[in-house]
Amino acid sequence: MAKLVLAGKANCPYYAKAELLADYLQANLLDFKVHKITQHPDKWEQWLHDICEMNGWEHRQSPIIWRELLDRGGKGLLLGGVNDFLEYAQHYYGITSMMLSEEMLDIAEENLQAHIEIEKEEEEIKSLIKPLQIWITSASGPICYQLIPLLANGEVFGMTTEISIHLLDTGQFKEVLCGIVMEAEDMAFPLLRSISEHTEIDEAFVQADIIIVLDDVLLNCEAQSLENYIREVSEICQVYAPLIEKNAKSEVRVISSGKTFVNLKAMMIMTYGPSIKPENVIAIATSWESAAKAMLARKLNMNAAGVKDVIVWGNITGCNYIDLSHAKLYGYDCALWGPANFPRPLLNMIYDSKWIHSEFQSAQSSLSSQVCHCVGMLPAHAVATVLRYWYHGSPPGDIVSVGILTKGQFCIPEGIVFSMPVRFQNGNWEVMTELEINETTQEVLGRLAHELIQEKLIALKEIKEMHPYGADKITSKKYLHQEMETLPTGSL
After folding, report:
1. Is 79 helix (H, G, I), strand (E, B) or coil?
2. What confidence score (pLDDT) does residue 121 get?
3. Is 342 left (phi over 0), alpha (psi -120 to 50) or beta?
């Protein structure tokens, strides 16, 4: 019985020609069997080199065909390429192929698409067998404690994806970590394959798929300067980034969260870990977004879930700007009624413009204080929500505020992590550059960028202290608040 192995690049037209002839022979001859192997074009050269080296063959093109001496394995007898196979079929069976070039190209394209689909299915099957590896830093804190049940209940990654959680912190918190591990194990989450504690920094981030950075520095400007805190954060990231490059998977996703220097942590991890993909590092702004929505909902006497598309611009845990110009209301009880998915512009529903220019803006300065003093539920929910969007997509049409590395979007300077509106789809995010912003908002974004640039320069030790925005202006919450009071209602 003839047993042939036919291998080639998935998009190779000559492989397609040989494949069709081999399928015909197998369908019409009882003693003819063929085993087919396709490789992605990017992997073909290396695969061919390895198979030839293993068997002592000389062959450099696609396809490669050999006779099996053992069923799907063992050293084979090299037949050659497509022309050698055509001669073999003609000589032994009196059959050849008359396939036209156009047909060969069409089938080659179909083969490539089929190969990609098969690879995707295999990855999904592997993910079911091998759990998602999630590492959480500063895991002894309340955010991590609240986050673990949200990650393990299946709502974030899906009801078929198992996870393994690794809790990382310093040795002084080992007992706390052990207590969290025992409690999580006692809850017996079906999708939680394992949970473990780690206090040795050298073993951090091994095989990580997701890293959630929760490290915070407790700000006390009476004890030391803001610049010293920035340098402290930079030093933490200088330790983490090389370990992520060394130990984590190449496609690892890094989420910066917490209560202080969220943008800076994301920026420094990318700076000190140049091989980490910038599109895989984001900073979470959802806590501030949610707090602003709740404040607006209380004013309107409605459910906060009905407030959508509030944008958080700038330095998430520093000087930021809550933009209401694109905000919408769903399910708001007013004179005009419509379907549940009928939106109303928020600014049209708040007739008290003085409230926006006074109370709401004044309250913005307290938002940061509210978020920073929360016990952990809000930031934990924010991390879980963004992870769910990242893996399964955000609701169609919804705006999500995320800190990402700038590339000149909205005329914001390049090379800083700046919170801006994005959408999540197909496992990626994209900036919603189609949104329009007016000149006044654009000027505010420039001031916000200034603070982040200053933080970055101090972290990199290029300057020693923060410099004010402009000749006689200081970039601070108080100054920005004063400036925003002059904005027209439509800008908010």
Report:
1. strand
2. 81
3. beta
